[in-house]
Amino acid sequence: MRVRFAPSPTGALHIGGARTALYNWLVARHGGGTLVLRIEDTDRERSTPENVEQILDALRWLELDWGEGPVLQSERAQRHAEVLERLLADGHAYRSSATAEDVKAFKARHGAQRGFRGEPEAEGAVRLRVPEEGATVVRDLVRGETRFAHEHLDDPVIARADASVLYNFAVAVDDLDAGITHVIRGEDHLSNTPKQLLVLEALGARQPQYAHLPLLHGPDGKKLSKRHGAASVQELRDAGFLPEAVRNYLALLGWGDADDETIIPTEELVRRFDVARVSRNPARFELDKLRWMNGRYMRELAVDDLAARLEAHTGRESLGPIAAIAQEKIQTLADFWPLAGPLVDGPVDDAAARERWLREEGREALAAAREALAELEGFSVESIDAALRRVVESRAAKPKQVFQPLRVAIAGTTVSPGIFESLAVLGREEALARIDGALAGAPA
RNA sequence: GCCGCUAUCGUCUAGGGGACUAGGACGCCGCCCUCUCACGGCGGAAACCGGGGUUCGAAUCCCCGUAGCGGUACCA
Q: How many CB atoms lie within 10 A of CB A355?
């Protein structure tokens, strides 16, 4: 079994492309096949080395590896020219100078649903000859059979007048030469498939199996675009998502099996994935479920692993201890710093929080807490917990009347990791210094 | 316009003639837990696009309509 992922390097790899890559990868892994990476760069305008690198970068981040390639379509021009000559020589293709206007005129005469047929000429673009009768049937693993009657099909242009070949021709030849057995790609290619099949047939080649995946839409049901944010793999990474969570989420966007499980580790996906079970209707890409799922994966990470990823994401060092106390409170790597950063960089300045929790009553509670912490033997989470709860009791206060002023004193704001844990991580000296700062009314 | 594809809770989906009082997950709402924010637990609201068939029986099969999407380039 040989599958391929063949993006055109027109910019960052989008979610839809990433899912196509993932499905191909899963099929290859599941079936013990090979994934071939091909870059469709025959559009010289948009295909830059930077764009190619972006795609490779995205695939590496997703940890989707490939067995062969990347092969550049542009480097196969020689082979394309040979095959084109062959089709021209044996009459499967012909040169025609017919323009788009000519095609229109043809349809005006013969009816809009009649496919264009040209006359062979000495010069012009190369068109593939489509049979008059019959139909080309696409047998698709997810959609079943789709019939394209030949009379509706235009003779497709497969090469420009300068002999450079066009997409539908190059794809067919490349898939053939690469020995691709399963073509798994977006549904936007379904209508292209008969053209490619006709090329294959003209060459007397065997057809690969096809599987056309439903397209992905944005939350508004429209085609996914930059407007939707986080539409590219890079944006997902920057937003603090984990590649394993993205894989899990993407796998479930357009595929599901009888099992109700939602959290499915990659190895499990490899075991269970079956392209025949891919859904036929387009799916919307929504961040909510990904965020939730990402949180699940974050919580399952070993603290060392989580800390390493947080360090890479924030560019900070030695985050282990805070990572441990923030782990269950964040859904993405990006959520971490706003929550725990103040423990490292010092309290933030939140006037509303000071106003609410550091007035007379709050300061008294804070002073009492300071005293208890200063006298404490040891400075562990447990001892801090016990000491502060004694303070609460002795003041006949509600817990939050003591804990919130403390939180505002050490973090500057009303949201932070657990108060005992936070204090323990800071250490007695730093904790007391921050409390003193707050009591002194210093802006921190 | 033409050629195609698709149609189950707001979203992702399970369902492939009777097991459907239509299941799960996210989100939403309520309650519990609780030092904030979360996590977690419990409960709730929420869907078969419409109309015709076929059948003893239809979310499941067929047709029509409607809607959405794709293709219709000497783009990929």
A: 11
